Amino acid sequence: GQTRKPVLLKRGMSATVKELLMSAEYILSAGNLNVVLCERGVRGFEDSTRNTLDLSCVPNVQGLSHLPIIVDPSHGTGIRSLVAPMSRAALAAGADGLLLEVHHDPEHSMTGDGVQSLFPDQFDQLMQELRPIAEVIGREM
Q1: Among 9, 14, 34, 83, whose Cα sits 20 to 30 Å from the Cα of 46?
Q2: What is the pLDDT of residue 141?
Q3: In the beta sheet, which residues pair with residue 98?
Q4: Which residues have CB under 8 Å from 116's CB, separation 6+?
Q5: ∠32-37-41 over CA atoms, to 5°?
Q6: Sign of the alpha-carbon torsion through 39, 58, 89, 47
Q7: In this structure, are residues 116 and 88 in contact, taking their beta carbons and an 8 Å threshold?
């Protein structure tokens, strides 16, 4: 919190919303007001995805805090084919932004996260799909 650099605070996979907000308060109390929260999924019972992407966290956090919250559907699901639908849902839920992985050759990604990375053309398509959703809910992209 004392660095004064922007902080992207990602919710831990077992953290409650209250724990996420209290972690943010810890950073804020040290004088850093540049905090953005990130929902990226919590541990659940389902094993067909990496995490359970808790989109109810978005309006919940917005009702409890002034801090912006973004959603990371790439890590939240771990599956490329789920990134676009969960991105659309995150925007509809009121997310202030998205954190998306995009790679021109995901199978050869050095991070090992290729299975969740969109191809550039998929990213372009997703951006086109998000614009009308943003407009309907009174948001701008």
Answers
A1: 9
A2: 87
A3: 71
A4: 50, 74, 75, 77, 78, 79, 80, 83, 101
A5: 150
A6: positive
A7: no
